[in-house]
Design goal:
Elements: H1 4-19, H2 23-26, H3 36-54, H4 70-84, H5 87-103
Helix pairs in contact: 1-4, 1-5, 3-4, 3-5
């Protein structure tokens, strides 16, 4: 059974790595995405969408604040999801964060 801390730990680890990543790595391509930053932005958008759904709100576009904000956007989306999601959603989201962490390593 997943708890919010499992997701938050995974999100914080990945967000911190992206906050300190040099531009050349942020903008470097990874399988399925034009850049590492794009992969994390897509993950953040998915987490934000799940948070909205769990809170009973309508989905809306997730802003792209640029490559250098990818870590911060992930941190915010992860915290929003951790605050409202049920255990299965938390576990699924934590696994997805770990997968993107491996992809962008």
């Amino acid at each position: 059974m997943a708890d919010p801390q499992t997701l938050l730990t995974a999100v914080d680890r990945l967000a911190d790595r992206f906050r300190s990543m040099p531009q050349s790595r942020l903008l470097g391509p990874v399988p399925g995405y034009p850049s590492r930053a794009a992969a994390v932005h897509a993950l953040a958008a998915r987490l934000a969408g799940r948070a909205l759904a769990a809170a009973g709100e309508r989905d809306r576009p997730f802003p792209d604040a640029g490559a250098f904000a990818a870590g911060d956007q992930l941190a915010v989306a992860g915290r929003e999801l951790a605050a409202v999601a049920d255990a299965p959603t938390l576990a699924e989201a934590a696994a997805e964060v770990r997968s993107v962490d491996e992809l962008t390593a």
